[in-house]
Write a structure and sequence with these properties.
five-stranded mixed barrel, 471 residues, 11 helices, 33% strand, alpha/beta
Amino acid sequence: MSPPIVPILLAGGAGTRLWPVSRDALPKQFLPLIGQRSTYQETLLRVADRKTFDEPIVITGPDFHFFAQRQAEEVGVAATIVIEPVRRDSAPAIAAAATIARQRDPDAVVLALAADHFILDVDAFRVTCVTGRQAAEAGHIVTFGIRPNEPKTSYGYILPGTPIGTQGVRAVERFVEKPDSATAARYVRDGYLWNSGNFLFRADVLLAEIRQFEPGMAAAIEAAVSEAKTDLSFLRLHPDAFARAPQKSIDYAVMEKTDRAAVVVGDFRWSDIGSWDALFDIAAHDAAGNVVQGTAVTMDARDCVIHSEGRLTTLIGVQDLVVVSTHDAVMVVPRSRAQDVRELVAKLKSANRPEASVHRRVHRPWGYYESIDVGERFQVKRIVVNSGGVLSLQKHQHRAEHWVVVRGTAEVTIDEHKRVLHENESIYIPIGGVHRLANHGKIPLELIEVQTGSYLGEDDIVRLDDIYKRN
């Protein structure tokens, strides 16, 4: 019996076209865009069958590794989480993860998956993996091609060629980039497939191709993995070595150059959820054709995508719109112009709008906080500390803090004194006081923090000790 396939989950992207929900500080793969689970969690569950798949290797950025670990634990899937120090696109990430997979098994067959894609037919997906495995074991780098149901301009395309071995696997005759509308229509007529960007290959074969076509990348990745360090339960790639790898996608670095490319037709419904209009294609619709996530009420509104977080959103007498409402931003755009959201985000960043990149809710290894109100010389925050969470031992130079426990039990350290606070109890932390907050209880700890002082920025935190080893 063949060893299980090693899944690689690429979970470090940004997804700016799904703003204001997806932002640099928390991108789309970790968000519940459809249903209650994130696309990252859905991808983990897709490869949870240990008869077919080995424990996944997740590669993500230095801001998301605790979040990736927490979401994996929430769905009960164990994973090896690897921290890439800087973004270098998919080729270096896949090469690093393939190197780690080969350390497990020199003959490892690897499945590289984007963590932000959505697949509706899980059984058909697994059948496709089994179909492509024989070609991968024979030395081909197999990509999954999806039969198009319409001429999409937001996807790359693949022209399949002659059959290879197992029925359903063909050589790749041609890769093409995202076309215009007329060209996309011609591609659909001529039998091209959508390029899903998921790959199945032997780790040694992929790494040999990278050494041939991108020797500088290969050397950088080899050094980054060999000099990687264990950091708590994570594997942190060597930052200087990894940064030397050129920034390239796997398509440019390998797939468009190799003579080993093959394609297996995936008979499953798939989307990369690259923009808001993609949700219209794959999510459930109400009787008026609307896709609704969150709390929304409509009157005479048709064929709209509505995403509402934490507030009632209403639409009257409109059609073919995307309406997204979050705690700190509202966006309205025609569905036909959903691809323009990326340009909007660039405009917001050039205007130094913090909403372009960060959410009001900010996640930390111990839980999260969110700003409730801000004024001159004061700020109010809601802080939630997970069971077992411990904030860093710290002090502030410019602000004092008042904490009121709303739910759970807090262990508070101030200078040399410890105190346990229960619901409806409060405490004061003076300017310069060395303090720490911990939740040793069984339920999340929730408190309201009122900051007062001349400067309230997050960079007024002087960390003296931190169990999460943050700088």
